[in-house]
Design brief:
mitochondrion, binds flavin-adenine dinucleotide, disordered N terminus, flavoprotein, ERV/ALR_sulphydryl_oxid_sf, ALR/ERV, three-stranded antiparallel beta sheet, single chain, 208 residues, 2 domains, mainly alpha, 6 helices, Four Helix Bundle (Hemerythrin (Met), subunit A), 3 strands, flavin-dependent sulfhydryl oxidase activity
């Protein structure tokens, strides 16, 4: 990771356009116009909060914090902020968070393996290798992309894309997904079943 890139361990501080007075609560510590970000908010490479790298819950905390601070600075119109809504309101017409983006992308990536030829030509393998290289640079959650690229480039070469045919590629993608599952503390998927999940449907007929 380059030195210009913030990471999850850097202090989560960002400058506010309208610095708040010094009467904030403990979890809104101020430091010369800087405010501590809520846990889980990831910064973009330009130092601004990265919505596509952050969970919806953390993003809501951030916007709630910003609203509270805006209300605190408004002395003339001291309207009370609306009561905090503790229940998440999943919507499908808002920009995605890191999870929605991830779910859609895995659907795309596994479907890509499902439609890959049983035996791929050199040209098809080359195109897919190029796609994965570019994908791993352009994926909009930059921390996710960095880790994915690092995993693929593991020095032993064991994580390099296996592109000879659908079976190899599907299993490789499943392993890549499991790497992220492990990182996030999620259950691993049994890769023997990747094809039933993403191509043929389950043998019990529930997808027919
Ligand atoms: C390349 C990439 C990197 C990511 N890195 C991060 C990250 O660093 N931090 C972060 O917070 N999020 C990351 N994400 C998002 C994360 O992986 C999940 O998509 C997100 O947390 C939502 O998870 P989910 O539990 O809804 O299911 P998802 O993990 O999105 O899985 C969707 C469905 O795929 C199936 N599935 C699960 N595992 C496998 C598997 N191994 N093989 C085949 N099918 C499977 C299951 O049926 C599951 O319901 C990344 C996503 C991608 C595409």
């Amino acid at each position: 990771m380059s030195e210009t890139q913030p990471n999850q361990n850097t202090p989560k501080l960002f400058p506010h356009q309208t610095p708040t007075p010094s009467s904030g609560s403990e979890d809104q510590q101020k430091d010369e116009g800087m405010t501590k970000l809520p846990n889980g908010v990831i910064l973009d490479k330009d130092g601004k909060p990265c919505r596509l790298c952050t969970s919806a819950a953390s993003w809501r905390n951030l916007t709630k914090q910003a609203k509270t601070q805006t209300a605190a600075t408004s002395t003339a119109t001291a309207a009370k902020p609306a009561a905090a809504d503790s229940t998440p309101r999943p919507r499908d017409d808002c920009p995605p968070d890191v999870e929605a983006l991830g779910r859609s992308t895995w659907t795309f990536l596994h479907s890509l393996t499902a439609s890959y030829p049983a035996k791929a030509s050199q040209e098809q393998q080359g195109e897919m290798r190029t796609f994965l290289k570019i994908f791993s640079r352009l994926y909009p959650c930059w921390v996710c992309a960095d880790d994915f690229r690092t995993w693929m480039a593991e020095p032993s070469g064991r994580n390099e894309p296996r592109l000879a045919g659908r079976s190899d590629f599907g299993t490789w993608m499943c392993e890549a997904h499991n790497e992220v599952n492990r990182k996030l503390g999620k259950k691993e998927f049994d890769c023997r079943f990747w094809e039933e999940r993403w191509r043929t449907g389950w043998k019990d007929g529930r997808c027919d």
